[in-house]
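Practice problem. Given the sequence and the SMILES for zinc ion, write out the predicted structure.
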Amino acid sequence: MKAVVFEGENRVSIQDKPVPKLDDGEVLIQVDLCGVCASDLAAIRGEVTDYSPPVVLGHEVAGTVSESRHPSVKVGQKVTVNPMITCGECDYCRADLDKYCTQIVGIGHDIDGGYAEYFKFPKHAIETGKLITVSDTVATTDLVFLEPLGCCINAERETIFGQSVAILGAGQIGLMFTQLARKRGLQVIVIEPIPERRQLAEAFGAEAVFDPSAVDQITQLTHGGADTVISATANDQPAIDLAFQLVKRGGCLNFFGLSAHDQYLNLNLEQLHFTGYKIMASWAFSRWSLDQARKMISGEEIQLSPMLSNRFPISESLTAIDHAKNGLGIKTAILGQV
Ligand SMILES: [Zn+2]
Ligand SMILES: [Zn+2]
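Answer key:
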């Protein structure tokens, strides 16, 4: 089979690999579609350090069980995965904070993932609830968003909200936050430089959309600043500066977007004291938030498929990665076929 192997900074190749052989308790997943995640792109660029190359990338999977050696899993079952395999026993795992477990093994990070025709899912992961099954009626083009939606739902639970929220970036994450915030009845303002993305944000319920230069207009519209700013973009210095320009005193800033390993937040503590900003970051998902995402997707409560702008076969996956790196389209995914 063909698979996309991340070998180190700026080194990615399409390789021929044997279809994985199963041991007792494991299942083989045939990949229908696998999302290209911003974190994969950051790993390829050498900006983040939480990957263990060489490894087949891909953790946003929509697939079908093609072989099962686990008694609880049926062949033909439509599935996605919770890509964080953890010990299941420590205090963090027991509190549904698996992401802080010290034994973490990530699908598409540390062991082979879904930029391939097939990948195998371990017994321990099945037995700690990491295989997520859905009905056949769930569209593959929605299912591929389950993991990123789970990240947004996790962040939504952690964030402090008031009346207004300014969302920086209308990529897939910003557009999911837009819809979640609308469901909460918030005033949603989206800041995004690309016109096509702004249009989609409006279609998904944003009250107003702006170019990043519109700080004064946003301040007026929100009567002095947004109660909450969610940064759903790479947290480079311009995005950080913009977030602080848009938030009102006492408001909450959630730096959700992935930040490069050499990016710092320079804060004057006296100013922080008097502005009372609630500064936070939300990372990844919980088992609870993935289950909420599964329910939303199964009930068609959120629009996801319209964000899937580009699909490439594995043989064109290097083009797919370049496409996503260049910020083209909204969501790029790789098909599990050559
Ligand atoms: Zn992801
Ligand atoms: Zn643990």
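Check your answer against the key. The CA atoms of residues 102 and 268 lie 33 Å apart.
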